[in-house]
């Protein structure tokens, strides 16, 4: 299975609602590696590596997020997988 790297920018009411912690839990359940962090503009950034089907499952989850979140949009871009991550965590 080919490992891919996707970067997500999630907009809406996504900070202060456990979005990052919930993302970490979901990504670990899916066996993905990478990180999630809050951005100064109010968005949440997620960088994840794994198989395309697992990344697609994370993308689907991102549109809903945790119960308190209100997601307006999820932008996804594909990048070159580096294999640099050991697990999945929260930054910043």
What would you note in describing this structure?
The protein is α+β, with helices and mostly antiparallel strands and 92 residues long. The protein has a single domain, classed as Alpha-Beta Plaits. 24% of the residues lie in helices and 40% in strands. A 5-stranded mixed beta sheet has the order 4-1-3-2-5. The radius of gyration is 12 Å and the shape is globular. The model has no long low-confidence stretch (mean pLDDT 97).
Sheet with most strands: 5 strands, mixed
Global outline:
globular
The count of helical stretches stands at: 2
Q: Which second-level CATH architecture applies?
A: 2-Layer Sandwich
Mean pLDDT over the residues = 97
- Report the CATH C-level class: Alpha Beta
Helix-strand makeup class? alpha+beta
CATH topology: Alpha-Beta Plaits
Strand content: 35-45%
Find the count of extended strands (DSSP E, 2+ residues): 5
Strand adjacency order, main sheet = 4-1-3-2-5
Q: What is the chains' assembly state? A: single chain
- Please, how many domains? 1
Strand-and-helix sequence, N→C? EHEEHEE
**Poorly predicted runs:** none
List the helices and strands and how they pair.
Blueprint: E1 4-13, H1 19-29, E2 33-38, E3 44-50, H2 52-62, E4 70-79, E5 88-91
What would a concise description of this structure say?
The chain has a single domain (4-83), classed as 2-Layer Sandwich (Alpha-Beta Plaits), CATH 3.30.70. It has 2 helices and 5 strands. It has helices spanning 19-29, 52-62, and strands at 4-13, 33-38, 44-50, 70-79, 88-91.
Protein traits:
92 residues, alpha+beta, Alpha-Beta Plaits, 5-stranded mixed β-sheet, 2 helices, 5 strands, 24% helix, globular
